[in-house]
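Per your request, structure below.
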């Protein structure tokens, strides 16, 4: 069985009681909110990845200020080839602050909209599980960087 490991970095940007989210578009057209971030390029530093991804998906310049934690997700299929196998995603979650730029949607990428959402409205949003993990890490700051919401078989 073929195995694949991908590493990604995501930002938890909270200011004035709101969190910055990007709307991810699945291959079937389903749209769900996620944290801005994504896959690391070969040879790229994780901090550079999260800064690049925030800018690509939201238009904002950002500065990571803390490593919140690491999350792992496992799938029994390979997304790139659509075949059986084992795929694991290792997701690094950083707290980041916005330092410049202007909010705008990504064009030609995996997201189609970026927006600030009041923290108390997040539970009602259609979202990927990573949003809950990121906000839990941001709130709880667990010493080992592991969220109580982590489940390797969820997205």
């Amino acid at each position: 069985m073929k195995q694949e490991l991908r590493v990604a970095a995501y930002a938890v940007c909270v200011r004035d009681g709101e969190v910055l989210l990007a709307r991810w578009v699945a291959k079937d057209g389903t749209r769900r909110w996620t944290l801005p971030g994504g896959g690391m390029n070969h040879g790229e530093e994780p901090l550079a990845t999260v800064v690049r991804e925030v800018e690509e998906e939201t238009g904002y310049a950002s500065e990571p200020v803390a490593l919140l934690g690491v999350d792992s997700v496992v799938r029994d299929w390979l997304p790139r080839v659509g075949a059986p196998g084992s795929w694991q995603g290792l997701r690094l979650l950083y707290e980041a602050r916005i330092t410049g730029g202007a909010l705008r949607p990504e064009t030609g990428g995996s997201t189609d909209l970026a927006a600030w959402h009041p923290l108390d409205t997040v539970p009602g949003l259609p979202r990927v599980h990573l949003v809950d993990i990121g906000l839990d890490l941001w709130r709880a700051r667990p010493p080992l960087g592991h969220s109580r919401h982590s489940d390797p078989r969820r997205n």
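The longest strand covers residues 60-78.

Regards,
D.
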